[in-house]
């Protein structure tokens, strides 16, 4: 039989699985974000204990490694105080004549559908450190953002 028609095992032809990528830089989290990470780790541990087959366990272990790393590297930021935009702030701002509200959170907690953006996002970086009434450059435009109001996010 020709060598071209032989294979050692089915695993040779599977796509390789890589570790889930972890963002560079500090892992700043809000209190809500830390609770979400802890809940995810606990959920994965329960799922691992109940996993039925090797493929499922392998996928769960991969996710568990990611979330355990995120938990161990989490740096809890204090709730923002005062008027300055910080991680954990709910910010009302104007951009192109339209008023929007976003909450600046840690990377794992970000969810655009809930208007929660990561502190590392360009919009968040432009807003961080600003106070109400202050204008900020954004996306190459001068004074593109105007901070209207800011408060500590109390939503859970």
From TrEMBL:
GO terms for biological process: regulation of DNA-templated transcription elongation. Residues 34-61 form a coiled coil. Gene3D superfamilies: Transcription elongation factor, GreA/GreB, C-terminal domain. Pfam families: GreA_GreB. The keyword Coiled coil applies. GO terms for molecular function: DNA binding; translation elongation factor activity. Residues 84-139 form the Transcription elongation factor GreA/GreB C-terminal domain. Keywords: Coiled coil, Elongation factor, Protein biosynthesis. This is Transcription elongation factor, GreA/GreB family. It comes from Sphingomonas guangdongensis. The lineage of its organism: Bacteria, Pseudomonadati, Pseudomonadota, Alphaproteobacteria, Sphingomonadales.
């Amino acid at each position: 039989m020709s060598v071209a028609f032989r294979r050692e095992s089915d695993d040779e032809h599977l796509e390789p699985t890589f570790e889930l990528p972890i963002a560079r830089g500090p892992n700043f989290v809000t209190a809500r974000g830390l609770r979400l990470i802890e809940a995810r780790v606990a959920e994965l541990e329960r799922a691992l204990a109940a996993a039925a087959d090797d493929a499922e366990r392998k996928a769960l272990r991969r996710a568990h490694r990611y979330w355990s790393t995120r938990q161990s590297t989490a740096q809890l930021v204090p709730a923002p105080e005062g008027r300055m935009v910080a991680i954990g702030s709910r910010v009302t701002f104007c951009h192109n004549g339209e008023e929007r509200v976003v909450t600046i959170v840690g990377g794992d907690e970000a969810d655009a559908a809930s208007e929660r953006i990561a502190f590392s996002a360009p919009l968040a970086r432009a807003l961080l450190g600003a106070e109400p009434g202050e204008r900020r450059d954004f996306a190459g435009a001068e004074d593109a953002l105007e901070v209207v109001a800011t408060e500590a996010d109390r939503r859970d």
